[in-house]
Each structure stands twice: as C-alpha cells, then as structure tokens.
Design goal:
about 425 residues; Immunoglobulin-like; Rossmann fold; six-stranded mixed β-sheet; 12 helices; 20 strands; elongated; DUF58; vWFA_dom_sf; DUF58 domain-containing protein; transmembrane; membrane
Length: about 425
C-alpha cells in the first residue's frame, strides 16, 4: 500500500493552507487540526472499504515447456472472495531476464464480474529452465486516495527447448517426402548408385538404363531403376563458442544452428541415413555417435537442450582435429560456425581443408540482415556513411572466405536466420540426389 497522487496532492494543498493560515490567522489552529483529522479519517475509511489482497483468489497457468524464439501465454485468473473486483488492476511479473514480456497489463473488470482473466505473452529468447517468481498486483482504492499493492508468489518454471515446430508441423516431411502414387516412401530419384527395382521399358526412357540380360530372360525390355544410396553417416558439428552466442534477429546464432541441426536430423531419418552430433568451443565438448535418424532425434534433442552458451573463443584446430580422429568412415559433415574477418578465419579454413580431404563438408554460416540495410543508408550523414563502409567491408570479407572454402571443395551455405532450415534441407536433398557423399 502507498499513497496515490491524489492523496499526495491533498496533503501538499493542506500543508500550504496550514502554513499560510498560521502566518496570517493564528487563531485558526482548531480549524486546521480539524482539516487534518478529516483527511486522516478519509484515508483510514478508504483503507477499510477497499478490496485488500486477501479478498482475492489468484490462479496461474503456464505451459511446462516452450520453443526458443516463440511466445508462450502466461494466464492469470482473478476472482473475488467477497464483493466485487477493483475497477482497474495492474499486473507485473518478477521473472528471469530471458523471459521477455511486451508490456504491463491492465485489467478492467466489468461491474459485477465474478472472475477476470489476463494473458501475458512471454517471449522465449534462450534455452534452459527459467522461473516466474512473483506476481505483483496494483489497484486504486475506492476513494482513489491509496494504491493497493500485493505480491503473490508464483513459483512456476518453464523449460525452453530447441525449436522443433517444423518437425511437428510436418514441414520437413513435406519438403523431403513428397507423396508418390499414394505411398509414403522416400525415393530421391536421380543418377543414384543403389538398385531400386526393375520396370518395363516405355517410350521416352533412357535406353542406357536397359538391363539386357534380364530383358533376354523375360523376352521384353526392362530397365534398372536406381535411387540415391542410403545409410550415409551425417555428423552435425555445432560451434558453441563466443561468436555463436551473439543475438541475431531475436535470439542467438547457437539456437538457430541447433534448430536447423534438429530439422536436418529428422529429415535424414526420413531419408534412411545415420546421424551423429558433435559440439566444440575452446575444446571438444559432446560427441554422439551416428545412429539411425529417427532413433537419434530424441537423443539429439535432449543433448541440444542442455548445450551451454560459452563465452570463450572457439579453437577450430583442436575441435576439428578431434572430430577427424573420431570418424572411421567417409561422412557428410555439416559445420555450423561463424567468423569475424578473414584473419580470424584462417585457422578455420585450414582445418576444414583437412576434413574435406576424406569427407564431404558443408559449412553453414548465418548472415546478418542488418548489414544489407546498412550498406544503403537512408540518410547521408557522416555516421551513416561510416557504417555503410564498414558493413560493405564485412560482407566482402565474408564473401572472400566463402569463395576460398568453395575452391577447397566445401559446399557453403550463407543463409539468413529465417531461411536457414529450409535452405539446409534443400541442400541436403541436392547432395543426396546427386550422390555427392
């Protein structure tokens, strides 16, 4: 409870009247005392007739988990134990800084309303378990002389998990598994190396695909239908160093890389490949051996949920050398990492070159959309021109690093945050169909 602006104004006015009267009319002390007693009596009466916190029942509702980068609803239900609710109630939350609320919420219960509910949107910006500790309520008293404040313990937690909404919505399955002839079967057609089936030759087919021996036995022309080879080994390699903890379009690069890695794990499981996981920063961290994609997905989801945000610089030499020693067969290695300039990228390029001699490497980097806006500023001030020059230089250095990696046989993907998952799945389908592994 605290005095409202109305009560403060009345007190200041009464004090001014008291000082003025005491100077000019000294025999008015009884009237001044009566004025202060009336003001005190009004304040006490206002406190008595107002709704106190003990006369309300507060209910909370919070989902046990949510996806990073999404919003979740925290619902507050208020109902009176006796009488009616105040006309205007302000709600504030005491919560972890990783949970962001848009604004303070005001409730305006209708006259005679038995219960009122409010929904606060919490923006989930980082993975982990975060608590909502307390709920603060503030409402004016009946005579608007006081502001009633109540603190309600909430004690609820939410587990912020990597975003697998593309998997749950079926977007990945739609992109990888088009329905063919009503059968839910993956057939990445192309110049594959794995035999699929024999088909009768019809006009328009490539004559080079005719199987002459079986055609002679069956006394009709048949062709060999091939498909992309399965059971490839895919290693999702995530850099969890300092640069990957940078915020990009709402949440960190590391979270975006994890979301794309899990989507690719699910897609590779549908395609029949084996998927493993590896993370490193200043030293090697986690290594999960390759398993069938669908079996690996829940395990990788648990591992990625516990991946920490590191503050140390990434040691590409130690991390990638350790990975190279753990792999016994040719694999598709997808590296999610980042760099600042061409100088800091030299060691990364050298170690990726070593990996590319025995494996097929895909390098994935996230491009900041703000750089493209800074290149062509709307204003022509000196600061805007300086930012434009710096942004242009950064983009040129990124392009130089990507071109150097491409000359080494590395497939580079420099994508925007919103398009990262779909671009990565499209590249994976291209790699599978062209037998690039």
């Amino acid at each position: 409870m605290r005095p409202s602006s109305t009560l403060i104004a009345l007190v200041l006015m009464s004090a001014a009247v008291t000082v003025f009267t005491s100077v000019w009319w000294r025999d008015m002390s009884y009237l001044l005392l009566l004025m202060w007693l009336v003001l005190a009596a009004l304040t006490v009466a206002d406190l008595v007739i107002s709704n106190l916190a003990g006369r309300m029942t507060i209910d909370f509702d919070l989902p046990p988990q949510g996806f990073v980068g999404h919003t979740t609803a925290f619902t507050v239900g208020i109902r009176p134990r006796k009488g009616a609710l105040p006309q205007k109630i302000e709600i504030r939350l005491d919560l972890a800084p990783e949970l962001v609320v848009d604004e303070i919420r005001w409730l305006n219960p209708a006259s005679g309303a038995g219960e009122v509910k409010a929904t606060l949107d919490l923006h989930l910006t980082r993975r982990g378990r975060y608590a909502i500790n307390d709920l603060w309520l503030k409402w004016p008293s009946r005579l608007k002389l006081l502001e009633m404040i109540a603190k309600m313990p909430v004690g609820k937690e939410i587990a912020v998990q990597p975003d697998i909404s593309p998997v749950l919505s079926g977007a990945i399955k739609t992109q990888i598994l088009p329905l063919e002839a009503g059968q839910k079967d993956l057939r990445l057609r192309g110049e594959g190396s794995e035999f699929h089936q024999l088909r009768e030759f019809v006009s328009g087919m490539d004559p080079r695909s005719i199987d002459w021996k079986r055609s002679a036995r069956m006394r009709s022309l048949v062709v060999r239908e091939m498909r992309a080879e399965r059971n490839h080994q895919i290693i999702l390699c995530v850099d969890s160093g300092r640069l990957m903890a940078e915020q990009l379009a709402g949440f960190t690069k590391l979270d975006r890389a994890i979301n794309a890695a899990l989507a690719m794990c699910w897609g590779a499981g549908l395609a029949g490949d084996l998927v493993g996981f590896y993370s490193f920063d200043s030293r090697p961290r986690l290594f999960v051996p390759a398993l069938p994609g669908r079996a690996a997905f829940p395990r990788l989801q648990t591992v990625c949920a516990g991946l920490r945000y590191e503050t140390q610089e990434t040691n590409h030499t130690l991390g990638l050398t350790h990975l190279s020693g753990r792999l016994k067969r040719r694999s598709l290695i997808v590296i999610f990492s980042d760099f600042v300039d061409t100088i800091t990228a030299e060691l990364m390029i050298e170690n990726i070159q070593v990996l590319a001699r025995h494996h097929f490497v895909v390098y994935v980097a996230l491009r900041d959309p703000m750089l493209a806006k800074l290149i062509e500023p709307e204003e022509t001030t000196l600061d805007a021109v300086a930012r434009s020059v710096a942004a242009r230089q950064i983009l040129q250095e990124r392009r130089a690093v990507m071109e150097k990696l491409a000359r080494l046989g590395v497939l580079c993907l420099d994508s925007t945050p919103e398009a990262l998952t779909s671009d990565l799945i499209a590249r994976y389908i291209e790699i599978k169909s062209r037998e690039m592994i």
